[in-house]
Automatic annotation (TrEMBL):
Domain of life of the native organism: Bacteria
Name listed for the protein in its UniProt record: ABC transporter related
Residue span, ABC3 transporter permease C-terminal domain: 307-420
TM region(s), chain numbering: 30-53, 303-328, 349-378, 390-410
Length: 427
């Protein structure tokens, strides 16, 4: 018990002694800490930028649904070149027969949502608002979950009767009907009028590489009504030429009954598409696979950014080693006196290690404070999204302590190995 008490007293005394030695050279200690301060702050800031860079894309992928497979119609390149030279009808993309095949042959399918899309304009006084006219089934609103703010969604009866009704997004509703009742009003799109029966919350569409299922200026109408009024053939006029395209469905959304079967079903769907679409006019997008790939890419990105920022921590550690080696030279006589009166080598090592750990810990704490402030500055100045995670804070502090111990160990061992007689003679 007495030996344990003496050991605790000795450690406490060494800690006080180490702190007092640092305080004697306050400016030098502060300048030494700056390397750790900026090193820790740069690690936190870089990781915050890296996390923020992928957050919007990851969130957008998650909103698509991990149990959803998206099939899109795409125009074959060869057919596009042929149409430019011969001006013939171009037929490509998904068909209603594809939907039937999906429902009959693919197991574990919970929902199949066919979609027709056309870009149109809605006149508002002398202005024209670009909108996206979406023909779909009532299941769309079960798959793309947007809160219903007013009225109702599309119903199976609307599809059966081919009713001229529409559900519009909140942002479009505010632009079209700023001072009048929205529900029951008519909106004219592409020469056809639709009665507004519901308003859904607008999508928070952000720039990114991931396709969004909905947009801020969407008008949703029953698929049967869309097909009856708009048809499957689209004629595009340009200077001196005409482009004629026939696309039955622009998109088909497939929801599985379990996330576990998504990747297996995607392979089956790809084989089905390859069999019925020889000219490669249909693409598959699997949000679950995209999510995993995006998360993997972000982890790699964070590692690279952290490694780059970690170089500054290395520089800070070299600064600590340099100043401690100078301190050993300056205090050679002091070390000799301590050794002469009975101090052991491990006590000398502990004394110098305490000083380096105090320097690195104080520098790490100040670096964390600066690291919390830097991402906010970056966001305000550049508009980039930044996310500071608790893992980056803990990692930075642990690295700073480790750097202090590693780079302080050599000067401490060198001090402990000084010969007491030689040290006492040192001038």
């Amino acid at each position: 018990m007495r030996r344990r008490a003496m050991t605790k007293f000795s450690v406490a005394r060494d800690i006080r002694l180490g702190i007092n030695n640092l305080m004697l050279h306050g400016l030098r200690s502060l300048l030494t800490m700056l390397g750790m301060v900026f090193g820790v702050a740069s690690v936190i800031a870089m990781l915050a930028v890296g996390s923020g860079a992928g957050q919007e894309t990851l969130q957008q992928i998650r909103e698509l649904g991990s149990d959803v497979i998206i099939m899109d119609s795409v125009k074959p390149v060869a057919q596009d070149k042929q149409q430019q030279t011969t001006n013939i009808l171009s037929v490509y993309g998904l068909t209603y027969r594809d939907v039937s095949h999906l429902r009959r042959t693919i197991p574990d399918v919970e929902m199949v949502v066919p979609v027709k899309i056309r870009r149109e304009q809605v006149l508002l006084g002398s202005q024209a608002i670009a909108v996206r006219l979406v023909g779909t089934t009532p299941e769309w609103f079960r798959l793309v979950r947007r809160p219903l703010l007013a009225g109702r969604g599309l119903s199976p009866l609307d599809e059966e009767r081919r009713s001229a009704v529409a559900v519009i997004t909140e942002k479009l509703a505010r632009e079209l009907f700023p001072l009048q009742e929205i529900l029951g009003s008519s909106v004219r799109v592409g020469g056809n009028s639709y009665r507004v029966v519901g308003v859904v919350q607008s999508a928070e569409v952000s720039g990114g590489e991931v396709q969004s299922l909905d947009e801020n200026h969407d008008i949703y109408v029953p698929l049967a009504t869309f097909r009856e009024r708009q048809g499957d053939v689209l004629v595009k006029w340009s200077v001196g030429s005409r482009i004629v395209e026939r696309v039955e469905l622009h998109q088909v959304l497939v929801r599985m009954n379990s996330e576990k079967v998504v990747e297996k079903t995607a392979s089956s769907l790809q084989r089905l598409v390859d069999y019925f679409h020889k000219k490669e006019d249909v693409t598959l997008q699997v949000p679950l696979a995209l999510l995993r790939q995006a998360e993997k890419t972000q982890r790699r990105f964070n590692i690279v950014l952290g490694a780059i920022a970690g170089i500054s921590l290395l520089v800070g550690g070299i600064g600590i080693m340099n100043i401690m080696l100078a301190s050993v030279t300056e205090r050679t006589r002091e070390i000799g006196i301590r050794r002469a009166i009975g101090a052991r080598r491990h006590q000398i090592v502990l004394q110098f290690l305490i000083e380096t750990v105090v320097l690195s810990c104080c520098g790490g704490a100040l670096g964390i404070a600066l690291g919390l402030f830097l991402p906010w500055i970056i966001t305000q100045l550049t508009g980039l999204s930044t996310v500071v995670t608790s893992a980056s804070l803990i990692l930075s502090l642990l690295i700073s302590v480790t750097v202090g111990i590693v780079f302080g160990l050599y000067p401490a061992i060198r001090a402990s190995r000084l010969d007491p007689i030689v040290a006492l003679r040192h001038e």
